[in-house]
Amino acid sequence: MTKNVMIGIGILLSTSDRNCRGMALDHEGNILYVKGDILIKLNVETGEGIARWTGPGTLTKPAVDTFGYIYVGTVVGVTPIHVLEPSTFELVYTIDLTPSAAYARGIEVSKDGKDLWTGNLTPGGPVYHYHSDIPGVLPYDLVEEISVDDYGNPIFQFMITTVDWGPDNTLWCSHETEDPELQSQNGLVVLNYNTMEYATLYMPEVPEGSYNGPRGVAFSLSGDTAYVVSFNGHRVWRYVVSTGVEEYNQVASCYRLENHPNPFRHMTTITFTLVKDGFVDLKVYDINGRIVKTLINEHMTPGSYEVQFDATTLPSGTYFCRMEVDGQVTTLKMLVVK
User: Where are the domains of the chain?
Assistant: First the structure.
């Protein structure tokens, strides 16, 4: 069914239009809808258009702080970020970000508006994090470029299309590639700012020729249900996390997969820890998704393990070590350099 949304006598959008570039909720629960270079506020109960703002180019998914101020950038160049007054959509001030991603489809902001994060369509990232002690007065300075963990292992290998806040101070990064051979590696990388750990929620398998790359995630008020949308896959998945997001991250970190050295020339040691019994499937894949080596395929008991991987006969390039434990998947990017 097609529905037109109007403000005054101007038709702003049609639900049959496939030009949505991002959505968010404002501080009152109304819908912020981005169509190309236009940002629209919709009444959550009636669907009536309340306000609109036209940006300088195709807009990112917007973000909202506790006070209701709306932050939105452009897909190309990202910066400057435009901060809009909640009711009138009047421009309050702009934020210049240096450095910034060349392209991104979404941004996020902390509740107090002092911290900003941006996605990055460059494969591998980074996710940029900025901070201002006094927003609107002092500039936003770069805090960190999130791309590798404490061991130097890449956190991301594909595009980080957008970022969304989740329960318990977690930032969910949509991590995707359009490569049909690597759809099994698409997922949401969850950065936990309470524990300073991260985990990956991989997307469900889809039929050959289909896509499952996530474009954004939204949560129920209770925080135990997540809705993940795929732009190219034309799907919405519903996840119910009975243990809660924080506990999910703690469980995922118990299977942390690492290797040393990385990059390496011939041999590397892959290590992991099990906190309970489980069936472990550990394989190495090449960049085209082909299995290079099956390292483990058996039931294992709790403990710390290490296994040697010999790449002597393999050419230089990127490889992925994928471990599945009773349906939970963790992937590690490895680089062979000769």
Answer: 256-336
292, containing H or E segment: strand 291-300
Q: What is the pLDDT of residues 4-55, one digit of tens each?
A: 544 443 444 554 455 678 889 999 999 999 989 999 999 888 888 899 999 9
Bridge partners of 259, per DSSP, are 270
- Tell me the C-alpha distance between 281 and 297, whole Å: 4
Using DSSP, how many helices (H) and how many strands (E) does the chain show?
1, 28
What is residue 247's three-state secondary structure?
Answer: helix
DSSP H or E segment with residue 249? helix 245-253
The tokens describing 112, both together, are 């107090």
- Determine the average pLDDT of the residues in 317-329: 81
Angstrom CA distances, 45 to 29, 48, 51, 208, 217, stand at 9, 8, 15, 39, 21
Residue 104 has pLDDT above 90, yes or no: yes
Q: Which residues contact 101 (CB under 8 A, 6 or more apart)?
A: 78, 118, 119, 120, 121, 122, 128
* pLDDT at residue 275 in the model: 72
Distance CA(126)–CA(155), nearest Å, equals 9
Q: Tell me the whole-structure pTM to 2 decimals.
A: 0.69
User: Which tokens go with 134?
Assistant: 């006094």
Indicate whether 184 pLDDT > 70.
yes
Closest CA to 198 of 173, 224, 164: 173
Query: Measured at the alpha carbon of residue 14, what is the angle toward residues 17 and 6, in degrees to the nearest 5?
Result: 155
Fold of 256-336: Immunoglobulin-like (2.60.40)
What is the percent of the chain where pLDDT is above 70? 89
